[in-house]
Design goal:
SDR_fam, seven-stranded parallel β-sheet, 47% helix, transmembrane, Rossmann fold, 262 residues, alpha/beta, membrane, oxidoreductase, transmembrane helix, 14% strand
Length: 262
Amino acid sequence: MAPDTKPTTQSRDYMLERMTTAILTADFTPRTVLVTGGNRGIGWAIAQEFIAEGHRVAVTARSGRGPEGSLTVIADVTDGVSLDAAFAVIEAQLGAVEILVANAGVTRDTLLMRMSDDDFTEVIDTNLSGAFRVVKRASKSMMKARFGRIILVSSVVGLLGSAGQVNYAASKSGLVGLARSVTRELGSRGITANVVAPGFVETDMTAALPDEQQKAYLKQIPANRFASPLEVARVITWLAGDSAGYISGAVIPVDGGLGMGH
């Protein structure tokens, strides 16, 4: 569903069914969730799935809006001042952030010899430093509450590497060290920090690729298909739930077997 598309009756029925199921589950606790970059693609699907489960959901975006039922705050993860303002709005309207999904990211793909310093630092500043900024801000209230779920959206590229993506792979690999260090620092406070590493996902970006390039990618994937955004979202909502409270510092691949545990 595009950000400016009104939900259909079918999507409303689906969300009502998901919310009813979640609320009837004995261990369900509605939480305040923040998804960065929740205005499109995987971030949109993640936010929508949390809403469907009955949580209070905020998304950050540089433009556009999140799914219906979410609170959209305009913020840039590279700008600490805008993040401070965003957290203030979220806390005032929804309460302190209890579940953080650091999803915002950019690419500036080109071969190493052609990559400028700006190409490299811009991707690191958004994908890795941006995650640090939101984790640091969210962790303050999590420590007070002695509860928190931090989920960092990485990529199979961060584990395997990829020609033409030195900057992107480095940024996504760095999220693993971030999550594991946070786990060692904050694990005793009831806070978990995990990484989800999607492979190729059906988004506008992959749909725009030439057919031959899509076929070449598919040959590398044992499942012989791309993931849907919902498949990634449901792994993330599971990690955020009470049943995953003893999982921390883990890297969960959602890649159809492409990474094979790397």
